[in-house]
Amino acid sequence: MRNALLEVTDLSRRFGGLTAVDGLNFHVNDGEIVSIIGPNGAGKTTAFNLITCIYPPSAGAISFDGLNLVGLPLHRIAAAGIGRTFQNLRVFANLTARENILVGLTRHARASFLETLFHGGRFRAEEEALAAEADRLVALLDLTPVADQLVRNLPYGDQRRVEIARALATKPKILLLDEPAAGMTPPEIEELNGMIRRLRDELGKTVLMVEHHMSLVMEISDRIIVMDQGRKIAEGTPDEVRSNPLVISAYLGSGVV
Question: Where are the domains of the chain?
């Protein structure tokens, strides 16, 4: 039995009179691919923002690898081993794909200010190691042909891969992907499917994903969590979820059930 890497317990977030997340409970095991789905406004991205401490919870607990996340600053979240992408692309458009990845890798640099200023031995060794790791991530994410192009000039699908590669550069234990297939063409989504599988199978990454593209969710997920109006209404394997009356009602209307 795999260990729970991430545990969310009775998590809630209120914005004035609006309850965006209401008593949410779920866990993600080490090595799993878990997807969160639900209609627009269900609270999925708010849940991501709570896990990564962009918002403080109104109630509840979040534990990651035995660490209580509530109240931690953002840099501690990254240091704990949580990486994420965003619903709206967040890349450095005026840098190349490779330079975007190097930005993520700088978190692991240990050379002192003076060593960096005077290009001391440790700085040069680290620079070579980070460049090699950037090349490895470029190859892993199939970005080699565009590695030295400015990100603003890349197709949308390549920009998404750059964002994922930069998140991987922080060396996370779990990767949170917020609608990674949004705006992608069918061939790009198929490539994304294979890439996420490689992250888990070859790199041992745990993946938690919010996604609206149902064919991707059903093909790739070990488990699916379904939210509606801030609450979890179902959880299970893809086969269990697709036949759940509450899920059908949430997506298609109560008259269908």
Answer: 1-81+172-257, 93-169
